[in-house]
Amino acid sequence: MTEVGSKKRYQVVIVGGGPVGAALAVELGQRGIACALIERRREPQRIPKGQNLTQRSVEHFYFWGVADALRTARILPPSYPMSGIVAYRDLNSEYWAAPPLREIVNPYYFQHNERLPQYQAEYVLRARLAQIENVETRFGWAAESITQNDAGVEIAIVEDGGPGREIVQADYVVGCDGGHSMVREQAGIARDGADFAQLMVLALFRSRELHEGLKRFPPRSTYRVIHPDLKGYWQFFGRVDVGESWFFHSPVPANTTRDNYDFHALLEKAAGFPFACDFDCVGFWDLRIAIAETYRAGRIFIAGDAAHSHPPYGAYGLNNGLDDVANLGWKLAATLQGWGGDTLLATYSEERRPIFKETAEDFIEAGIRRDREFLRRHSPERDKVEFARAWQDHANSVATNVLTYEPHYEGSPIVFGPPGGKSSAKGAHTFEARAGHHLPPQLLSSGRNVFEELGSAFTLLAFGVDDAAAASFAQTGKTLGVPLKIVRDSYEARRRDYNAKFILVRPDRYIAWRADAPPADAAAVLNKAIART
Ligand SMILES: Cc1cc2nc3c(=O)[nH]c(=O)nc-3n(C[C@H](O)[C@H](O)[C@H](O)COP(=O)(O)OP(=O)(O)OC[C@H]3O[C@@H](n4cnc5c(N)ncnc54)[C@H](O)[C@@H]3O)c2cc1C
Q1: For ligand 1, mutation pick of 27, 318, 323 (most atoms within 8 Å of CB)
Q2: Other CB atoms closer than 10 Å to residue 146's CB: what's the count?
Q3: Which of 203, 252, 471, 509 has the most CB atoms in a 10 Å sphere around its CB?
Q4: Number of the ligand 1 atom closest to the C-alpha atom of 247
């Protein structure tokens, strides 16, 4: 941070310190970037949403130095299964299933998935931020307005409930300020997406009787009800702990308020049995998908729910936001440190937006349509035997979604993807190293995982490669000013899973290039990977 006249100047100002903004501050701070994080709330909002973290999200926490702290912050016992029950009509139904969920792709990632309330993850990130000197946190401050010109951005900030008012300056600003993003609106970025015109309730309550009533099922963290009357929208119970605290969301009529509706009766109908409960809080949200038309306007970027928001079906929201952070963080740092540039920054929106668009259309909207169609076509009242068979197939189809959700950047201008490659949320899980895809885990002959050896910027994995080829690549990195770590090992049978001797890994652990022979022009490979012509 520098002082320009009476104004403080940072390299990056982050507006919104929810999970995505706090994570970006850690990512940039660790990369040595001077940042300010402006967050209206003094404490994280204690709503137990954003619970279901993917393997990839936990990998980010590992590289932020807090994967162990994250797992320690879990509220459910470590052994408690994270996946859920799905039931037809209510939780007392004879038709239910306990299909496997995200854990089935654990072997393809360096870290296993995790489950904890979002506020717990936010506390972990805030504790990490307190250790990073070059990040200044302003909890209890709100951003009011933003202006930009060729030289930078100016952000007017005000102390929440206090007299403080300041103008801060930065090279770039990133709006991580949630679905109602002021940053997005002031940048003039429009949104589109599907509005299901459906009001949803989110209730937090405590009930030991509900816990007792669900003992007929194997232990699970969530309970999803699909009902023919609800057009494919879910009723969803989630455990916050074992035995007492719950959250619940469900469609409700459009005119519902806290005072004109019997939420206890709604819970009992979804459960299929009576139980006593105490409500802690009731709130509402609209079932809609919204995607910003671009994630960047000049020096202004948006990430997380500010860029894309949708119903919590499939738990894609926070996880996608954390992937925005990993993608944007290194590109901003590279540009501010002089080895990236404007074309590299442009690839943030180019890479991330198609992933979310497909996630919304082909996983979230398609999932709602699939449930709706199932409920329309099959009914135990019409044909019990046919329904029982169709029910099992339908419940198991969730696992297919997990297997095919493999976001990749094959069509990105900064990866050596296949001819005609297209960036997509859909792919396949494999141990082969593919350009544009996430690096699969792999043990080195030292016994350490390759992820434990990665550098903080680019890494070249060089397996069974002679000294001259590795040294030449390293020298090219030096000449171009691109931070590059070379990790060498022999090319043994177990590593043939990668099916490549040279793998260039980006700072976000995606593969930019892979080959079996040294490149004719290593500079051309590195230049393309950082969008330098
Ligand atoms: C019931 C429910 C369950 C969910 N479950 C999952 C799940 O299992 N997995 C998953 O991946 N996602 C889930 N989600 C979605 C997830 O919660 C969101 O995607 C996530 O909160 C997005 O984080 P964010 O930091 O982008 O935005 P937010 O969490 O909305 O944070 C934005 C922050 O910006 C601050 N802010 C706003 N304006 C200003 C301003 N002008 N100045 C300063 N600060 C400002 C706010 O105070 C807030 O702290 C769920 C959502 C719901 C509602």
Answers
A1: 318
A2: 21
A3: 203
A4: 1
